[in-house]
Each structure stands twice: as structure tokens, then as C-alpha cells.
């Protein structure tokens, strides 16, 4: 579902961010369907993830379209100095690797807040959250609380979830920035 939403937006996007590169599958999807003049950024805190993402891009000859960054997505503003059209988060842990290294509510909210500041009018953020594991549940609760507070005049915010899946299925959040400037983002956990 996230890919379908992104797919519709990619032809109009110039600056695209995969905030959680992982094994690179989402990054490859973005690079493959982005315009030829688009720039894709991919962030991950694990070197293993960045190596895998770079290799997957290389295998598919999309390496020149993507800048891979070994750093937290909450530092997105240290690297990206232009407006962004798409930011996508696929939260949780690296499939096939340690389950202890996972996204956390605090840094995820910081990264979304910064992404909102960078987002172009009509730009979107998609976030897939996994409430089926313990830290994922806390993260999802925080996301629901914070995203629900975004002002209706400036954002369209929605969520989507399978209803007939067992064990707390993933939740997809979609944040669309309406045209016009945003005065401020939502509060971080410390606020
Ligand atoms: C579910 S995986 C992403 C899957 C990936 N998009 C794919 O297509 O394979 C989540 C990733 O988020 C990364 N991650 C965790 N905390 C992060 C952070 N603060 N900044 C960037 N990436 C983070 C993990 O290392 C892990 O690789």
C-alpha cells in the first residue's frame, strides 16, 4: 500500500528520502520509479544496512541516483538543504539481523518533525509502524498521538491497517502537506 501511494507521487518528485534503508528494497523501489533527474537519499544507522543497500543499487544500476548516508534519520537536516517531496519510513529492525537495533519513538518523532519542516507543499511522508513487537508498540502509540495533533489546515493525515490480520498488523500513516508554509512542526517527546 505504501508503495502504491509513493508510486503515484514519484513522477512529480525531485527530492526523495528513504529514512530507513535496511536491506535497500524500498530505496531500490524509489530509485527505479523516480524521475531521471530526481535525487534519492537513503539513511540508516547500521553499516550493514548501508552496504546491503549500496550493493542492491549497484546490482540494478541505480547507484548514481542515490546518496546513502550512514547516520540517523533524525539528522536529516544536516545533509538535505533543499525542500523534499517524499519521505518514507519503514520502522523497526533490519530483517534478518539483530532485533535489538530498532527505530525508537524519540528519534522517529524528531525525524518526522524535521521532515515536515523540509517538506514541499503537496509533499508526503509515509510511515509504516510495527506495533507487533514491544518497542514498536510504544513507537506506534507515540506516532498516533503526535500525528493526530497536526493541524488540519496545514496537513492531511491518515492511516491504513489490515483489519483481519492476527498479531497487531503494521500501520501505514500518510502525512500530506497542503500547499503553503507550515508555522511549526509537532512537539518532540521532551516538549
Ligand atoms: C524495517 S528496516 C527497513 C527496511 C527497508 N526499508 C527495506 O526495504 O529493506 C528498519 C531499518 O531502520 C534502521 N534504523 C533504526 N533506527 C534508525 C535511525 N535512527 N535512523 C535511520 N535508520 C534507522 C534499522 O537499522 C533498519 O535497517
Describe the overall structure.
- With 191 residues, the chain is α/β, with parallel strands linked by helices.
- It is built from 6 helices and 7 strands.
- Helices cover 33% and strands 25% of the residues.
- It has a 7-stranded mixed beta sheet, with helices on both faces.
- Helix 3 (47-59) links the parallel strand 2 (39-44) and strand 3 (66-70).
- It is globular.
- S-adenosylmethionine binds next to helix 2 and strand 2.
Highest CATH level, the class: Alpha Beta
What is the approximate shape? globular
CATH level-4 homologous superfamily: Vaccinia Virus protein VP39
Helix and strand element order:
HEHEHEHEHEHEE
Features of the shown structure:
binds S-adenosylmethionine; single chain; alpha/beta; Rossmann fold
Topology, element by element:
Layout: H1 2-9, E1 15-18, H2 25-33, E2 39-44, H3 47-59, E3 66-70, H4 76-79, E4 84-90, H5 105-118, E5 119-129, H6 134-148, E6 155-161, E7 171-177
Parallel strand pairs: 1-2, 1-4, 2-3, 4-5
Antiparallel strand pairs: 5-7, 6-7
Amino acid at each position: 500500500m505504501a508503495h502504491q501511494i509513493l508510486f503515484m507521487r514519484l513522477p512529480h518528485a525531485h527530492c526523495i528520502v528513504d529514512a530507513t534503508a535496511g536491506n535497500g528494497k524500498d530505496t531500490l523501489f524509489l530509485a527505479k520509479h523516480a524521475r531521471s533527474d530526481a535525487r534519492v537519499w537513503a539513511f540508516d544507522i547500521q553499516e550493514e544496512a548501508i552496504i546491503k543497500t549500496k550493493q542492491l543499487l549497484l546490482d540494478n544500476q541505480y547507484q548514481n541516483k542515490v546518496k546513502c548516508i550512514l547516520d540517523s534519520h533524525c539528522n536529516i537536516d544536516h545533509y538535505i538543504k533543499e525542500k523534499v517531496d517524499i519521505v518514507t519510513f519503514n520502522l523497526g529492525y533490519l530483517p534478518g539481523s539483530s532485533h535489538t537495533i530498532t527505530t525508537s519513538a524519540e528519534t522517529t518523532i524528531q525525524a518526522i518533525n524535521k521532515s515536515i519542516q523540509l517538506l514541499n507543499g503537496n509533499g508526503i511522508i509515509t510511515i509504516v509502524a510495527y506495533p507487533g513487537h514491544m518497542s514498536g508498540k510504544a513507537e506506534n502509540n507515540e506516532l498516533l498521538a503526535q500525528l493526530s495533533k497536526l493541524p488540519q489546515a496545514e496537513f492531511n493525515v491518515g492511516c491504513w491497517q489490515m483489519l483481519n490480520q492476527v498479531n497487531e498488523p503494521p500501520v501505514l500513516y500518510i502525512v500530506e502537506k497542503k500547499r503553503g508554509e507550515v508555522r511549526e512542526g509537532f512537539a518532540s517527546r521532551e516538549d
